Amino acid sequence: SARECIGHPEKEALAMEAKFSAPVFQTEDAKEGPKAFMEKREPVFKGR
């Protein structure tokens, strides 16, 4: 989590944050938000 980055040097903390957040941005819901925006519709999130 982001809290684990506290106290680490900036470069190391940014690398840790990227590792933690990468899986989140690969979810169906993460892709649905921008897709819905581009299609000018409400997103349909499924919790995946």
Give an overview of the whole structure.
- There is one protein chain.
- With 48 residues, the protein is an all-alpha fold.
- It has one domain.
- It is 48% helix and 0% strand.
- It has two helices and no strands.
- The longest helix is centred in the N-terminal third of the chain and has 12 residues.
- The two termini are 19 Å apart.
- The mean pLDDT is 91.
Spans of at least 5 consecutive residues with low confidence: none
Beta strand %: under 5%
Q: State mean pLDDT (0 to 100 scale).
A: 91
**How many distinct helices?**
2
- The counted number of beta strands is 0
Instruction: Name the helicity range.
Output: 40-55%
Question: What's a concise summary of this model?
Answer:
This protein is an all-alpha fold. It has helices at residues 10-21, 28-38.
List keywords for this structure.
mainly alpha, 48 residues, single chain, 2 helices
Topology:
Elements: H1 10-21, H2 28-38
